[in-house]
Amino acid sequence: MIRQTQGETILIDTKFKGYFRTLIFAGLVLFLTLVDVGAARAELKIDITRGNIEPMPIAITRLVGEGGAEQLGREIAQVVSANLERSGLFLPIDPKAFIQKPETMKQRPRFGEWRQINAEALVNGTIEIEPDGRVKVTFRLWDVFAESQLTGFIYRTLEESWRRVAHKISDDIYKRITGEEGYFDTRIVYVAESGPANLRKKQLAIMDQDGANHRFLTNGVDLVLTPRFSPSAQEITYLSFFHDQPRVYILNIDTGQQEVVGDFPSMTFAPRFSPDGNTIIMSLATDGNSDIYTMDLRNRQITQLTKHSAIDTSPSYSPDAEKVVFNSDRGGSQQLYVMDASGRNVERISFGNGRYATPVWSPRGDLIAFTKIHKSQFYIGVMDVDGGRERLLVGGFFVEAPTWSPNGRVLSYFRQIPGSDGTDDKTELYSIDLTGYNERLLVTPLDGSDPAWSPLIP
Amino acid sequence: MRRGITFSSLLHLAILLLAYFGVPSLFSSEEVLERPIPVTIYTVREETVLPPPQAPEVEAEAEPEPEPEPEPDKEAVPIPPAPDVAHEAPPKPPEPTPSKPEPAPRVAEAAAQPPPPPSIPEPSLVPPPPPPKPVHLAKVKSKPEPDPILEVKPTPPDPLASLLKSVMESAQKAIKLEQKQANAEPVAPPPQTSTMSRVSDEPLSLSVSDAIRRQVEDNWNVPAGAADAADLTVEIRISLRSDGGVIRAVIVDQSRLTDAFYRTMAESARRAVLQASPLRDLPPEKYEQWREITFTFKPPV
User: What percentage of residues in chain B have a pLDDT greater than 70?
Assistant: First the structure.
């Protein structure tokens, strides 16, 4: 029995061996094929985890045009070049180094010649004056190494607006290369100061972001402070002392019309527009105590947001208008707090050493800029909206009043430089990149303080 | 009967075993390649030597080399839109307006033909030509946002100048240009197949991939301050000539190019590779091992 069975088993075995061999062979073939495919598709993999952070070399050629347009084409290129250079992210190449002449680039650039001068990006274009007197500007941005066009636009405008075209082109380039919105087609309003310290004349002034088109908005008879743009960039709200009574005003830039915001018996100050432009948020002081209020500009309705014996001031909305950051000394020293736009859920967010003031919510929503005072030094810094990751960008004897560029990348503020005898202090406007690099002076005809950066001009 | 069952179950078992052991070993071979050292596994096979399926293009391109006056046709040189080469999100089939007659002419057109001037309807690029609204404002002529695909065609005189064109074309153009150069180069490397003769099975040494890494890192200008930079890992796949010149550099994940930050990162990565071209210090006998490289760019935090 057993033997029989064994015999049978053996039989099966031998028979099976045949199958099995075939199977193994087939499997082996299959296996080898797969491995083979794997090997064939194998390629070297390399991780790149380091790089440089340097301004990108860019060649900006003059726009090619004839007659009067030629000079304009040159100037537009210069403005674009200056804008990009000031951003700190670009390194415009000296036109003297250009090998290919702009005239010969009507079609495709000869990229090899631009690589030779190390240009990574290239801008060219044309300009012509049309029969109706308007200026037509065409520009293109090229990736020199990929030899492809990155972007291109045509602008038509009145001749006197040529600077805006230059700024818009700058924004286009900035946006295409960095991935972020530009901020060149913007203006800055600030307080222009002149005269001796005890009789300082302060008037509102406005200029393009690069200092061009400067003009005064008020005559300096009444003291002005803390100007802020509306979201449309057409209005400014600010504090003015009229008959020695500090009040919040709104000024229309184009018409020059001014009006008081609300008719309060007491002083109002530190105004700012809400993100939709329909509301002004500000401080209102009664009997030495100040709280935060809003006024709806459509129906003049006033709402009190904070009610505390401490001084609450400098409110600033988050871009989604859900929250408000402000400063208060309710905890003993001046610190930053965030609350709902309704005034509820007040939470302290600053816990570092020193005092914190003038918080401003970034237009990007991710950061809050502030002035910090610690051991009699002033700093401009930023922190996350929950108060984390505080970073100080600049410091000095006196720096104050940060304001955001509309893309949330750059801050402007002012710096006071003490004079030798204490009477001839100078105040100057500066800008700095969020990285803490690239601090730049904004040249103004008079001393300047309290800058406010406009949104992108619509 | 019993036999059948035994056989069948054994067979199943065998298949299972095969599946179990066979497949993972496949993956592991892939995985190992992550590190340069164990590269031993990829013994060179003939398949590797096959030229990438895009050689034909080169010829088409090599032709129009003489670029005299007729610039426009240079522009027209266009190139079939090979999806993988495009650096701008190709999946977008946008530009409905400008899809014009452009696409039709493919490689054939490459040669030389009168520039199609009429085919460039300005309006497509330029929405509202006489914008009545601006008081003194500059007027953006084109739609602001889809500009990635917006390619103003450089034509000679006027307006019609602008027309949309898939950026893929330019991408390919770039590549072809490279290839053209390759072909034209006096130092023309031996035909690809012939490299077989001196193929080495030795693994690439660590120093070689280190050298490559360094050359690319030296040329990478990291876009500063992009939001959430840490998420923006970009893969670039390149093909190299035997002299180290980059034939093509492709952004692997095209689908994310619609994200401006990703695109910025990806383009900077591709630029780094192109700028590093030709890569130096590569052992020619191991060409098969470095002819295709995939770089993973991870922004330093």
Answer: 35
For B127, nearest residue in chain A (alpha carbons): A154
The C-alpha atoms of residue B74 and residue B77 are separated, in whole angstroms, by 5
For residue A267, the model assigns a pLDDT of 84
Cβ–Cβ < 8 Å for A13, B3: no
- CB contact under 8 Å between B14 and A23, yes or no, is yes
**H or E segment at A32?**
helix A2-41
The minimum CA-CA distance between B112 and chain A, rounded to whole Å, is 16
DSSP A61-106: PPPB-STHHHHHHHHHHHHHHHHHHHHTSEEEPPGGG--S-GGGGS
Say what the pLDDT of residue A402 is.
96
Could B75 and A50 be called an inter-chain contact, meaning their C-beta atoms sit closer than 8 Å? Answer: no
Give the C-alpha separation, B1 to B6, whole Å. 9
Interface test with B, best of A17, A63, A154, A367 (most B CBs within 10 A): A154
Q: Buried (b) or exposed (e) across A235-269, using 16+ Cβ within 10 A?
A: bbbbbbeeeeebbbbbbebeeeeeeebbebeebbb
User: How many beta-carbon pairs under 8 angstroms link A with B?
Assistant: 244
The predicted complex's ipTM stands at 0.77
At A372 the three-state DSSP class reads strand
In the sheet that holds A121-129, the strands lie side by side as A90-92, A56-60, A121-129, A135-143, A148-157, B139-140
pLDDT score of A261? 86
